Prior knowledge:
- By secondary structure, the chain is of the alpha/beta class.
- Helices cover about 45% and strands about 20% of the residues.
- Strands 19, 20, 21, 22, 23, 24, 25 and 26 form an eight-stranded mixed β-sheet that branches.
- The longest helix is centred in the middle third of the chain and has 50 residues, at about 375-425.
Amino acid sequence: MPNLLRLRRRASDAPRPRAGGGRERWIGLALLGMLVAAYAADLGPITTLRAKLFDVMQAARPRAVTQHPVIIVDIDDDSLAVHGQWPWPRTVLARLVERLTEMGAALIGFDIIFLEPDRLDPGRLAGSLDGLDAETRARLQAMPDNDAVFANAIRASRVVLGRVAATRAAADPFLSESSEPSPLPPLASRIAVRRSEGVPSLARLFVDAPVLLRNIPELEAAAVGHGLFSLFPEADGIVRRVPMAVVHDGDPHPTLALEILRVAFGQDSVVVEMDAAGVAAVRIAAGMVIPTDRLGRAWPYFSGPDPSRSVSAHEVLSGTVDPARIRDRLLLIGTSASGLLDMWSTPVEPAASGVAIHAQLIENALAGTFLHRPRFAKTIELALLVVGGGLILWLIPRLGAGWTLVPFVLLTGGAIAASWTLFSVYRVLIDVGFAVIAMLLLFTVLSVAGRAREQAGRRRIRTAFSRYLAPAMVERLAENPQGLRLGGETRTMSILFCDVRNFTAIAEASRRDPEGLTRLINRVLTPLTEVVLARHGTVDKYIGDCLMAFWNAPLDDSDHARHACLAALEMQAAMHRVNETPGREVTDSGPPGPLAVGIGINTGAVVVGNMGSDQRFDYSVLGDAVNLAARFEALSKDYRLGIIVGEETRLAAEDLAFLEVDWVQVRGRGEASRIFTVVGDEEVASTATFRSLADSHARLFAAFRQQQWRQALEILEACRQSTDGWPIAGLYDVYEQRLQALASDPPRPDRDGAGDATPETSHKSG
């Protein structure tokens, strides 16, 4: 058993009061600041996360398609199987255009570029093939030029041809002399820019193309429009946004979808509206505006794969397609053939053909279903991050993670629901993903930090109080540290002092064996301490052979007076067991005799908290009630009792077996105090034997206060016969001496009955 004399707490042992969660708030504030700065700076991972979130939203709810104003004429694998490998003779393409025109196509666009003359042109074959006889060569040379045939078909219809934006390195293989047999006509921009002073240059906003790859001159001249079908996937390879124009040599040129719409609506040009922030929108015709971001990129709302949007080129050429599917539609000719490498990833399809993406762009423009991200979106998102993060920072230290979870779920759930509603109903893109993740991160960090702080606080509490409280009480205190007010508070408490009788003489006799004396006092104080802890008490301190304890702090104990009295009874029983177990201690006069303790208990208002100096302090109590408890312990020896309690204690634990001891005037106090002893618990109090003793005892004190000394002596003898082994005989011995003295030397008749806290002299009061 450890030396209990060394259990006096030091400053390092006791938990100091501190502002809960202060450190976590600073950590959270710093983290929130970094998250806000990162989002404001649009760091790469954040923009990628935002794009992925919008992808998920589109994939979860793709655009619904109810009609198909755009039909794709697909040069698919079946078409290549029938008509041969690509590129086909231009005469086949001419026949394709003618068939579509005959079936009533409103406009035809090519997602294909024709950079070189047809390599299968008869005249070109006649000049390049060796071994031909003169007649065959002459017949070939007399046949119509394939490119001319194709140009005539284009001229007879309404056709928009495609162009390609390229870097110079990528374009070099196509810019050889052989690929440009005749000069191309000058480029003419079909885009009008409406802007004011201070607007950024086009090259800083739109994609800048060093080279525009164009069709051969005959075809360029035959078409009614020209648009770029180049796509620009983002860093992760997904096509999400498509520029409505590309800048070349300082002039903007429309993309294929935009040019098809211009021609379809009979406009000479489209208008790009710009302001100080960049591109605001692209206006095609009255009532048709394509919303864009500041860089002029439109955000198409993709639908899922839809086979009904396409017809096979082979079906058109063979005449098996229903003309109703072509009539009055916008036609896009392109390819989905696996070997022609025109497949792209979109938010809803891992592999979509380029021509299908252009078709969806046109559908979005006609239906007005483009997605839109307002310029104030980032402000809203930052506000959500700041307000939500700040709310979490404010709530967690006050409510804890458990209660903060409710507003956290409501806030994040509401943000997600609002974002989804804006997307699904209004096609507006607001990114709440980062804010939700940031709030979750803040919530997690603060919760973990708070949990760690709570655990550390509980460990400190367990360390500080484990030797002064019962384990169950320590756990209660650790789980509810709010009950621990270390700064000082006034509470009604019960205080117990316990002192070993005649310890000074024992210590003097043991001066040659200090270790034996230490073992002796430890052997006494250990079981007494165990009783206090078992009865929910707090050991305040050990002063030599004295033990001080209190109840109702640091944890509330509504039954503190009763627990203190029961502890006192059990401490007396524990001393009997100590005396029954012989020890190894030997004094100068031999083994010490039976050991006894005196106990004083009082209940009253005291101040409890950390008390001492900055260098060392104790969790202790101060107050008049504490002083009275110490005086009552001292009186126990004078009254030859093991326990003396104050009247407030008796009133708070009336079900126990109490007997009055005296009405004493304690030195230093203006008021007299009634004192009692407790001889048993509620079971003892309910026995007939005790009730008989209590009745005789009450009559004894009534006769005593009426100064009927002889009658009191007679009643006292009756009381002696009813003690039933309770430790009360010593009190009756004291009163017998007092009554005999009073009978021989009566006091004044007006004596108030209050002694001066010294039984042997109390009859002289007054």
